[in-house]
């Protein structure tokens, strides 16, 4: 973020607009609309900046624009020379004005036309009546703080108001009725227990989480997250939300599972809205089931929000069809790491089933897995792939026949989480028509063309 977003109070303050023409006129009108006392000049002299809170230049001679920029920045006065980011200390965003609600969109000066197009889309989604809703909530703030001093509880009430009849009445222009409805809500409000949301964060990319997950991150009081959650996903959370790391690595738990369960219960009983953020899907080898059971036994409300699990994300990124009419009629999700580290798989049944096998947490057990499948009759040349740190910029891929993969994996692995894929469909990676065959002896880094 190159430019820090900020809204400047200009009511009763002086503003300078240097230049002539339509653009200068529009800037002067915008400043006046914000309450500033605007001075218009065609030419510039350094003394013109005396007492000014802000300055804008457009449609003036080049020498005057440069002089204005240099003088204003020397005095610490915010200055914008229209369409000249190099001469400006701030940029003018595209605005959606729903007074007192204001939405600003900026591209850092790189693509102002794109910013204006995004503004048009937002304007279509947020009607002007939202300004009345923001004003109503502003007027109610003092009473809300007096009646409900606890911030998390007050935030939950406001969220309920925004999704209920009070907001609907305001948007319909029936403010007197909205006042009565708000009074009824305040009279009925009582401390309520919190709630836990078991949320799947997907494979690591922020744009692969669900819309519901994104909304909950923006509403949560506390984020309890694993080590696979990247900063770009965590940045979707409210800025004042507490973040608690409880990550697990192979043979090392930052916080044992029973303690995580107890933590979630305690936070909810404190009245907090808790997002338990897990890589992939919480119910696919994510221990979400154990946490949901613990919460239910404690009487804590819980909601499950699914995520894109590793088998889907890693296969898609590598171009591997998990199912294919000519190669795999089924896909089976397995774990290569049992509760006590044991491998308890029915190898003969899995071999007879065929299709694609997606094995989570299987890299340390890979030699035993390969031996188990070989003993059950799976051909050693069966195509296989390891995808390490799938869905992140550090993603790596190793393709080889299963027997060779088991031999090469220890030296290849960097210790990151890895997904093992086994089955004929692996050889069809990279081409949707399935005609190509992957060279199963190559290590293929992320975003590198697959060798055929």
Key traits:
452 residues, alpha/beta, Cobalt-precorrin-4 Transmethylase, domain 1, 4 domains, 6-stranded mixed sheet, 19% strand, globular
Question: Would you mind describing this structure in some detail?
Answer:
The protein has helices at 22-33, 62-75, 112-125, 130-147, 151-162, 165-171, 175-188, 211-219, 231-234, 257-269, 288-297, 310-318, 347-353, 366-375, 402-412, and strands spanning 14-18, 37-41, 52-57, 79-81, 94-98, 101-105, 195-200, 222-225, 242-245, 248-249, 252-253, 273-278, 301-305, 331-335, 356-360, 383-388, 396-401, 418-422, 443-445. Strand 14 (331-335), helix 13 (347-353) and strand 15 (356-360) form a beta-alpha-beta unit. With 452 residues, it is of the alpha/beta class. Helix 6 packs antiparallel against helix 7 (175-188), helix 10 packs across helix 11 and helix 14 (366-375) runs antiparallel to helix 15. The radius of gyration is 29 Å and the shape is globular. It has 4 domains: 1-92, NAD(P)-binding Rossmann-like Domain (Rossmann fold, 3-Layer(aba) Sandwich), CATH 3.40.50; 130-188, no CATH class; 195-308, Cobalt-precorrin-4 Transmethylase, domain 1 (3-Layer(aba) Sandwich); 314-445, Tetrapyrrole methylase, C-terminal domain (Methyltransferase, Cobalt-precorrin-4 Transmethylase, Domain 2). The protein contains 15 helices and 19 strands. The strands form 5 sheets. A 6-stranded mixed beta sheet has the order 14-15-18-16-17-19, with helices on both faces. It has a 5-stranded parallel beta sheet with strand order 9-8-12-7-13, with helices on both faces. It has a 4-stranded parallel beta sheet with strand order 2-1-3-4, sandwiched between helices. Mean pLDDT is 87; it is low at 431-452.
